[in-house]
Specification:
Layout: E1 2-6, E2 17-22, E3 29-30, E4 35-40, E5 45-49, E6 54-59, E7 66-67, E8 72-77, H1 85-104, H2 115-124, H3 142-151, H4 199-214, E9 217-225, H5 227-244, H6 251-264, E10 271-273, E11 276-278, E12 285-287, E13 289-291, E14 294-296, E15 299-300, H7 308-323, H8 329-332, E16 337-341, E17 360-364, E18 367-374, E19 377-391, H9 397-412, H10 415-419
Parallel strand pairs: 12-16, 16-17
Antiparallel strand pairs: 1-8, 2-4, 2-7, 3-6, 4-5, 6-8, 9-19, 10-11, 12-15, 13-14, 17-19, 18-19
Helix pairs in contact: 1-2, 2-3, 6-7, 6-9
Length: 421
């Protein structure tokens, strides 16, 4: 029987996708849940797994070609059983590991495994229960398996190297030249190299222009003495990490401070829809992180119900998923407010651009020792400049300034966040 491999149903905001890379070629044997192809949308990379064992008989679109939702991109003949010795042995060992794990643990305790991670586990005959998952609800991701393989000691006491898999080229797949960063020319040469934008980069450019065109963007600035937060982190860092298994970073303080400020100034948490202002009765804060293909903004949902430890764990999880191109559409959809930290790249001051349809974004920057006047004396203190860009159509200047002052006050006296004052 011939099985059709189709492009998954895409969200309303995603019109189409581009074939990023094929992991298999025509004539290759495949296993159920094994990743066949990566699709690049203007938001995330989607993995398309095989829905049946069999052999790929046809690949209809090559790398770089555009496809639409539910379009057939390949065919699988499920009457051919994959029976190569190496594959069978690997699958058998993995199946035995899973069976042993299920005997020792209940089904509820067995972690979920992404298709790409499942393929790596089978290839390297790894017991799934030995790999700690960093995805949602402990899901084992591809990068978790790669990390386990890299850190697993070999018989000789060294490390197990991981070589990137190179899929075979099919005659049905159109070859394309990989996009490489242009080399730096010698002095005196005038060399140019033209490369197409990735879908994600093109979408980022489109949204930035849209934000500047559709909103009346202004930016207000302030500075905050970070010494109280730094003292608090130093005092409880070890105990916090021991108790919750995650480091106490700076971002959770900013998320909590932003939450309190958003409660006081609802317009900053609102958005414009046509001629209406939509006030959101929840607080979904996006935290901008950098991925291989560009900046993405995964969303912390219902921050009002999250503890500091939960915020830190969620941010770390999103950062790891972004690094491995494993963010889902749901991870980056929505959001009522955004925080961007240019300080991790050394930025001293910037004017962040809105993330539509949101009405405001907070920009964090690097912490530097700067002179401040305290009780009439000039003192060197760790200072961060803050920037709030906002849509002046919905947020007045007074509200924007007071919002940023509230965040400053919360950070300079963190106990206020606990007391809600």
């Amino acid at each position: 029987m011939t099985i059709e491999v189709k492009v998954p149903v895409l969200p309303e905001s995603v019109a189409d996708a581009v074939i990023a890379s094929w992991h298999k070629a025509a004539g290759d044997r495949v296993r159920r849940d094994e990743t066949l192809v990566d699709l690049e949308t203007d938001k995330v990379i989607l993995e398309v797994p095989a829905i049946s064992d069999g052999v790929i008989t046809e690949i209809r679109f090559g790398q770089g070609e555009t496809v639409n939702a539910e379009q057939v991109i390949a065919l699988i003949d499920d009457t051919v059983v994959a029976d190569t010795a190496v594959e069978s042995a690997a699958v058998a060992r993995t199946a035995a590991s899973v069976k042993t794990a299920q005997t020792e643990h209940s089904l509820d305790e067995t972690p979920a495994i992404s298709p790409s991670a499942r393929r790596l586990l089978a290839e390297h005959a790894i017991d799934p229960t030995r790999v700690e998952g960093s995805g949602k609800h402990g899901t084992v991701l591809k990068e978790d398996v790669l990390k386990y393989i890299e850190n697993a000691p070999t018989a000789a006491g060294g490390r197990t190297p991981v070589a990137p898999a190179t899929p075979p080229v099919s005659k049905h797949v159109k070859k394309s030249t990989p996009i490489e960063a242009p080399a730096i020319p010698d002095v005196g040469q005038r060399i140019e190299k033209r490369v197409p934008m990735t879908r994600l980069r093109a979408r980022i450019a489109e949204r930035l222009l849209q934000a500047q065109h559709d909103a009346a963007i202004l930016t207000t600035f302030n500075e905050v003495n970070m010494q109280p937060v730094m003292d608090l982190r130093a005092r409880y860092r070890e105990k916090f990490e021991k108790e919750f298994g995650v480091k106490l970073g700076f971002m959770s303080f900013f998320v909590k401070a932003a939450l309190e400020a958003l409660k006081k100034f609802p317009a900053v948490n609102a958005s414009i829809d046509g001629s209406d202002i939509v006030y959101h009765g929840y607080y979904d804060i996006g935290v901008a992180v950098s991925g291989p293909a560009g900046l993405v903004v995964p969303v912390l949902r219902n921050v009002e119900d999250m503890s500091v430890a939960e915020i830190e764990k969620s941010i770390i999880g999103y950062a790891e998923k972004a690094a491995g191109n494993a963010l889902s559409i749901e991870d980056i959809s929505g959001g009522t407010f955004t925080i961007s930290n240019g300080g991790v790249f050394g930025s001293m001051l910037s004017t962040p651009i809105l993330n539509p349809p949101q009405s405001a974004i907070l920009g964090m920057h690097s912490i530097k020792q700067r002179p401040m006047v305290v009780d009439g004396d000039i003192v060197a203190l760790p200072v961060m400049y803050l920037a709030l860009s906002y849509d002046h159509r919905i947020i007045d200047g007074r509200e924007a300034v007071q919002f940023l002052v509230t965040i400053r006050d919360m950070l300079e006296d963190p106990s206020r966040m606990l007391l809600g004052i």
